Amino acid sequence: MELKIPDLCLVVLIGASGSGKSTFARKHFLRTQVLSSDYFRGLVSDDENDQSASAAAFDVLHHVAAKRLEAGKVTVIDATNVQAPDRAKLIEVAKKANVLPVAIVLDTPTDVCLKRNAQRPDRDFGAHVVKRHRAALHRSLKYLGKEGFKRVHVLRSESDVDSAVIVYEKLLNDLRHETGPFDVIGDVHGCRAELEELLTELGYTLVRDDEGRAIDAVPPGNRKAVFVGDLVDRGPDTPGVLRLVMGMVAAGHALSVRGNHEEKLVRALRGHKVTVRHGLEKSLEQLAHEPEEFRRAVTKFCDGLVAHYVLDGGNLVVAHAGLPERYHGRASAKVRSFALYGDTTGEVDEYGLPVRLPWANDYRGSAMVLYGHVLVPEAEWINNTMCLETGVVFGGKLTALRYPEKELVSVKAHQAWYESDRPLVAPAPAERAPDVLALTDVTGLRRIETSVMGAVTIRAEQSASALELMSRFAIDPHDLLYLPPTMAPTATSLRDDVLEHPSEAFAEYLAAGVREVICEEKHMGSRAVLLVRKVGGAIYTRTGRAFFDGTLGDELLDRVRESAKPLFDEFATDWLLIDAELMPWNAKASGLIREQYAAVGAAAGGALPVAVEALQTTADRGVDVAELLARTESRAANASAYRAAYERYCWPTEGLEGVRIAPFQLLATEGRTFHDRSHLWHLETLSRLEGSLFQQTRHLVVDTADPAAGVRWWEELTAEGGEGMVVKPLANLTGRVQPGVKVRGREYLRIIYGPDYTEPANLARLRKRALGRKRGLALREYALGIEALERVARGEPLWRVHECVFGVLALESEPVDPRL
Length: 820
Known about the structure:
With 820 residues, the protein is α/β, with parallel strands linked by helices. Helix 3 runs parallel beside helix 4 and helix 25 (772-793) packs antiparallel against helix 26. GO terms for molecular function: kinase activity.
């Protein structure tokens, strides 16, 4: 008797005491796969039969089961499980892990259970217990499927139990044995002619029936097409697309995942009540002219499509709306919903469409994820993911990605077949006076279109936070043309003695295809943006506040303006926008240093040496305090290093005496931006700002395939407590990779993480820091910054520029560890 179970699932054994569950588990599963309620009672109470310990035992059992399932391990629960509430908790564990729960019921006769229990001295409870278990079991049998068990196997006799064989089956989404190569094709939406053209461009040979209709496409070599779903709706020939794709799938020439439009079409074809819109009306009208047999075949085909596939040994995942790594190869309603619809906020945008969370921005999985669903003007890489829905049905194009070559192939739409609810590129808002700002420009839920990464969503609560800061502290919006993005640190190092190391930065850029990077010395100061006009201007912080109050800022601008005269002439401009670092740190952050850092340093410097002296005296008297003394001496040394770390970046200033500016990027001039120029060009251009006010930024160009020189330079910079360096793609704007990552030195990080952060236990804890959200913010803020500069250069109204600047400040309200 074969009991088929998925190769990743939660198996729940159900049966009365004495039914043989433990024996069955030992026979068919590994010892480590089986979690026994008796064993966990023993763990928490030293008595496997102590029923008063059951609640605690099951708490621990559920926790261990969750951890095993999270790790992708089959897990078997050996307990009576005859009560629905007990099973419900296990089903919830399976749901949270996004795996299928399976029930194996041992409906062993009562007399057999009683006989077995009588042979065990630890089972001295009466026959009524077994009878109660079996009564509860029989009441539950017909409801197990409704409770959530995806498969239910019932063994009704000893012979059934003895003959049972466990057979593992791969999940329907597990096609890891399919290694390609593949041609992954975006949303077709009924555009048959464009699909035929794309397949021909990809080298496929179309096969037609006697009526000239395409019914298959034979791939070149051993390639295979993979469709990301949404084959149907909106376009002129949904039946033609289905006839072709169904033929390809049946011939083994293609695979297809299910899209949300197939989901709705199946419900409509089966007569369920659905709202006929978003192009469904066209599919139903077109299919109405097809034979009933074809409509039945379409219903069966679309209903049989799975939500996502894992291919090529786990290196490729295809899902209609994309899929985070934690869902790859899993099976649950949550996984299916994400694969079909993506992750939404529950809100709608100005077009009445769901606001989708940018899951790909935080994706860090090793598998490439290819998907559609979200309309984009161009297919671009985002963290090893790519959306291939380039709007063929709306007049855009139909796009395919060759895998593993990573080559994009596309064909243009023959015409716009359907009017999009949301334009491929959002139109500019209605005209108004160029310098007029309105509250409605920056409040509520907003989607800001950028050239770098499409739409960036700003949530209403983020807008509210930024509004307070902007209205109370920011400079005049006419001067606030840009805010610099946050910068993420490099991936956490696994080296024993450091938290950050440049090797990870170089490896990350190399993996992203960036061969040349520039390493720039990191100045310990405060980020400053300089808007230098021939008359007027501003120097402000990365949160839009004036850097200096009163005349000091005007005096500093005058000195910068005088030095910048050659640049005004070279670029034929009335203004320059410069990104820089202003030093020393205490020029702006004296209050922070005094109240936070110096206070800690003073307290530690006063207390710890005294403690060391007292412990040494105690040790000299023969008292064993060696461990405490060593720990206190280490803390005293750490505190001394902590004071040295922040004192290095502070020096006396009197007015502008002692102030230094290190400019590193010319952001824009009148009518021009410069993010298409290499960072070397920026540094060389700004090196013409001469005088004692300016400090050049030391730098080094590094080949990421041979980064030894960069590692040595970082080691030299940080050996004496230097802050470290920033690693950037030399070419500057380079697709959707991080625009720069900071690699900070061991001693400088004491300022950030505290004096004792280098203790082994603390370093081990800090290595678990999560960088995904910070990196997502860095990319979105960078995109908004570039968009602001481009709008300035195009001469767009101030409120259009301010929308992007405000967006950067709004994103800064995200709850991210400020030490990153």
